[in-house]
Specification:
- The chain is α+β, with helices and mostly antiparallel strands.
- The protein has a domain of 118 residues: 7,8-Dihydro-6-hydroxymethylpterin-pyrophosphokinase HPPK (Alpha-Beta Plaits, 2-Layer Sandwich).
- It contains four helices and eight strands.
- The strands form two sheets. Strands 1, 2, 3, 4, 5 and 8 form a six-stranded antiparallel β-sheet that branches. Strands 6-7 form a two-stranded antiparallel sheet.
- Strand 6 and strand 7 form a beta hairpin.
- Helix 3 packs antiparallel against helix 4.
- The protein is globular and about 45 Å long.
């Protein structure tokens, strides 16, 4: 076994998003990269959703968002590094916080693991407040617990999400 790999797989829930360079294709390419990544097995992928940008610079293009459930044997920081490598492979540049991006892969939850580390906080600290995460995640894991915030489906009931729609090619 290599460094950063454990014996038994864990389930991780991911959020995928893009608002640059044909966003739906970027998200689909991200899923394809997950399917071929070492020590990752894709279990489920949500539909694609068109969502309004949250935070960041004004006048950004709309996002394409999705969620995925994976089995992984990677330790948390090794998984984070693998996801960031996929992002970089698709041209992700980290120059403006919450700015436009070719691909964003976030770990929302990793089994029932809790982490307060600023580099990797689990569950994701803002997931329970963000409809662009909750709507796709509710499609594949409505009962997933997001820490003290509760189940995904209950969090979704508390946030506005009427501006999110199924992705349709422009």
């Amino acid at each position: 076994m290599s460094a950063g790999v454990i014996g038994d797989p864990r389930v991780a829930w991911l959020s995928l998003g893009s608002n640059l360079e044909r966003p739906a294709r970027q998200v689909e390419a991200g899923v394809a990269a997950l399917r071929t990544a070492a020590d990752i097995d894709v279990l489920a992928v949500s539909s694609l959703y068109r969502t309004t940008p949250v935070g960041g610079p004004p006048d950004q293009p709309m996002f394409c968002n999705a969620a995925a459930a994976i089995n992984t044997r990677l330790m948390p920081y090794a998984l984070l590094a693998a996801l960031q490598a996929i992002e970089a492979g698709q041209g992700r540049v980290r120059d403006v916080r919450w700015g436009p991006r070719t691909l964003d892969l976030d770990i929302i939850a990793l089994d029932t693991r809790y982490s307060a580390d600023p580099r990797l906080t689990l569950p994701h600290p803002r997931a329970a407040e963000r409809a662009f995460v909750l709507v796709p995640l509710a499609e594949i894991a409505p009962a997933l617990m997001l820490g003290d915030a509760g189940r995904v489906i209950d969090c979704l009931a508390r946030v506005a999400h009427d501006d999110i729609e199924a992705w349709a090619a422009p």
